[in-house]
Amino acid sequence: MKKLKVLLDFIQLSIIGKIEFYRNVILKLIENPLFPTPDESLETAKTVVDALEAAYLATKDGSRTAISTMHDAEDTADGVFRNLAAYVDRIAVGDETSILSSGFHISKQPASIQKPDIDAQDGDNSGSVWLVARAVDKAGAYLWQYAKDTLPENEADWMDAGISTQSYYELTGLNVACKYFFRVAAITPTGKTDFTSPVMKVVS
């Protein structure tokens, strides 16, 4: 039987997704008798997540320095939680219940097709962005949405960008040097999937 392992799938999450995931792992590991002496202290883990959240909030002004600082904070947090994942993997020795109690995911779980990853890259021209999502099996179309300046708190505040039959889409006519948030859902024979966790990009 295949030995179960801790997945490092959290590395692919958006900044917001990582903050939520990392805080959940900390909560699950606090006073968890199965993992009493983690390689990284939970206080350190909390500190780096707090720093990541603060850095993310600081990007609201759209400055390149703030965005660079956010990515530095993201790298630091990712490193700490990679170490915690390795610790859980070592201690759990493949036990499914033990791994799940830590808040991390396990290798037998399939990659979620309900929330394909999305990436935003510079488009072919100024004011355009290429959006690329992980392809979803049997998807007939992809619905792309965006928001400007701030992350919407309500579903109604998202704006439709367009629909494509491929898992990529170029959005044009955006304001240069402005911050945008993007997300996508796949349309399959069984219906529309959940939207991905949003990603943020400053348009160039």
Q: What string, H for helix and E for strand, traces the elements in order?
A: HHHHEEEEEEEE
Number of helices, counting only DSSP H or I runs of 4 residues or more: 4
Described by the principal axes of the CA atoms, the overall outline is globular
- Number of distinct beta strands: 8
Q: What portion of the residues fall into strands of 2 or more residues?
A: 15-25%
> Mean pLDDT across all residues, rounded?
90
SSE class: alpha+beta
Description:
This protein is an alpha+beta fold. It folds into 2 domains: 9-101; 118-202, Immunoglobulins (Immunoglobulin-like). The chain contains 4 helices and 8 strands; from the N terminus they run H-H-H-H-E-E-E-E-E-E-E-E. The chain has helices spanning 15-29, 42-58, 64-92, 96-101, and strands spanning 118-122, 129-133, 141-148, 159-164, 168-171, 179-188, 191-192, 199-202. A hairpin with a 2-residue loop joins strand 6 (179-188) and strand 7 (191-192). The radius of gyration is 19 Å and the shape is globular. The N and C termini lie far apart (50 Å).
